Amino acid sequence: MDKPEDEKYWSSSATKGFDFDSEENEHAGDIFGATPLQTAQLSKEVQQNIPHQPVVSRGETHRKLSNSLSSLSTCSNSSYKFNTSQPTKQCEVTCKLLSSTINDETMSNPKDVVRSIFLGMSYDLSCFKKLSDKKILLDEALKLGDGDVICAVLLFLQKSLHQMVLFPLLKERYVAAREYIAILEKQKCFKEAAILCGELQQTKEAVVHLYNSCFREGEQTILSSLEQIYKNELKNFKQIEVESEIIEEHILLLERQGPIAVTRARLPQSEIDDTRTSPFIGKAVTAQNLVGSSLLSTLQYCCRHNWDAPENLLASPIGLKKTFKLTERQFLWNAFIGRILMNQDPLPILLVKGMFGAPKISASLSIPRILEIASNLNGKPNLFDQLLLLVEKSEKRYQLAKKYQRHRIVIDVLISNKDRISLLQYRDSIDDQSEIDYINNTLRVSVSSVKCFNH
């Protein structure tokens, strides 16, 4: 049946809707769950409970206000009742999410804790007291696969578990064990890392960690620490022949360095305070810092101060070479530097007889590299002249001689190439009068020979 389309029908409805144009406010409050009469009643009771004294207790006021609200909402005989409705589905979902949020704030579920760590939210690991809970927490972190989360859990386990309990736990979880070894390395706990590597059957890495642990206690105890791990700790590992040999050689080197440093320290101070160094070492090696230095530094020191020592002495360079099985190149490089630092001629140890008796560089050392080191250490000019003559290619010899300003060799190369223009240009670029006269005499002789040939 069609409803009459007049204003009277729509205005006479039993339940009136909200109308912005209407001036009547009788039913306006119904939309918010209470009628205007109920609101007025509540306002009246609130005003009656407000005391007029200048000093008012907030707790008392809040208590009276709460009682008024409670009495108003629970009074069954009152004609002013709130209009309530059944909760909607959206409200139920909201309440469920709110309850889940509240549970997350006080959560003790390992999975939720791991997720909070990953998301950067606040978390508390102190609630995990049992070993079983800690295992589950670690497993959840490993399952997630994030390195930061695993590291956070491992640091918690490190503080809350003894090593004898933690290591068997990590032994069954290889990824966590490797992460924990990295943490121990950052903390410089090398002995603990060695024990864990040993349980993982990674013996070579365990020896390396033991070796590093000897350098934490200071240079004075390095020798005793190395001897202790060599005699006791290394017996527990297998297939570490190379590592054992390295530690044994280091012990032998320290046993040599001590007496050498003591003997050198007894010399006059003028002979000791020579701080010149080389590109191979960097910091100058003296009697004060000899103990604990490298093998090549010790060799260079002995070549510098004990070159003529017999082979049976601890400071003998030849004895060092044979004891530690140094190659010919290793020995010659450091012997060459040691002799230059002592202002001695290094050519006798660099040159050997080649085919047909011609001299050549021993052990195929690089002549450009030798010249570079000699230049850095202020080698004598005679050394450059003799080494440049051993360069076979004239172009390379010309470039090196020009770089180190060995004018006579540059001039000889240009003369052998019969490059008159380059010779004149080079004469104008130098200031050494003797070399200029040498060029002029060469040019004069060449012109005279050409004239005689023409006649």
How are the elements arranged and paired?
Elements: H1 7-11, H2 36-48, H3 58-74, H4 89-105, H5 110-119, H6 131-144, H7 147-160, H8 163-171, H9 174-186, H10 190-199, H11 203-213, H12 222-231, H13 241-265, H14 269-272, H15 295-305, H16 317-323, H17 328-341, H18 347-350, E1 351-353, E2 359-361, H19 367-376, H20 381-388, H21 394-403, H22 407-416, H23 420-429, H24 433-454
Antiparallel strand pairs: 1-2
Helix pairs in contact: 5-6, 6-7, 7-9, 9-10, 10-11, 12-13, 15-17, 21-22, 23-24
Question: How would you characterize this protein structure?
Answer:
- The protein is mainly alpha-helical.
- 61% of the residues lie in helices and 1% in strands.
- The protein contains 24 helices and 2 strands.
- A two-stranded antiparallel sheet has the order 1-2.
- β1 and β2 form a beta hairpin.
- The longest helix is centred in the middle third of the chain and has 25 residues, at 241-265.
- It is elongated.
- The N and C termini lie far apart (145 Å).
- Residues 24-32, 72-85, 96-106 and 448-455 have low confidence and may be disordered.
Using only C-alpha atoms, the radius of gyration works out to 47 Å
**Major sheet strand order:** 1-2
Mean pLDDT: 79
The largest sheet is: 2 strands, antiparallel
The total strand number stands at 2
Helix-strand category: mainly alpha
Tell me the β content.
Answer: under 5%
Total of helices: 24
Tell me the span between the first and last alpha carbons.
145 Å
Task: State the shape.
Answer: elongated
Which consecutive residue ranges, at least 5 long each, have pLDDT under 50?
A: 24-32, 72-85, 96-106, 448-455
The helicity comes to 55-70%
